[in-house]
Amino acid sequence: MDKISLRLSEEERGMLHGQAEVLGISLSELIRERLFAPQGLTVSLRVEELTRQVGTLSEGVLRLAERGENAPLPAPEMPPALGAALERIERSLCDLSQQIGALRDAITEQKAQPTGWTSFLSRSR
User: Fold this and answer.
1) pTM score of the predicted model
2) Is it the case that residue 2 has pLDDT exceeding 60?
């Protein structure tokens, strides 16, 4: 293969090296791909590489999960202020839940009442 020299600024060179590293290919491969590969092929090569990287990451996550199951971490101690804040939030959520339940009951009751003149007259008595 022939060799071609290319003049780049430090910033351009760093950018190209970074892109090649992310794709997992050499700088020469990146430049050849950009110059000669059809646009669709370039995208498919990137998708293929990203798929490979995601697969590798998934395997690593599974290995970490297996290790975690074998040696569970101790539960961290909760600071008192955080515990108090969580209790307040829990009480607020409980209150909101009760209010939502009451609203739901009121709406159900309202829907069950007949509408029209007869219901108006019976409510007026």
Assistant:
1) 0.33
2) yes
DSSP 70-89: HSPPPPPPPPHHHHHHHHHH
In total, the chain counts a number of residues equal to 125
Task: Give me the amino acid identity at 1.
Answer: M
- Cα–Cα distance, 120 to 125 (Å, whole number): 9
The pLDDT of 55-84, averaged and rounded, is 74
From CA 52, how far away is CA 22, in angstroms rounded? 12
Please report the sign of the dihedral spanned by the C-alpha atoms of residue 56, residue 62, residue 63, residue 68: positive
pLDDT recorded at residue 33: 81
Cα distance between residue 23 and residue 42, in whole Å: 11
Contact 12, 20 (CB under 8 A): no
| Contact in structure between 16 and 27 (CB atoms under 8 Å) | yes
Q: E strand or H helix at 99, and its extent? A: helix 80-112
Alpha-carbon distance of 60 to 83, in angstroms, equals 34
CA atoms within 13 A on the CB side of 56: 7
Residue type for 17, please? H
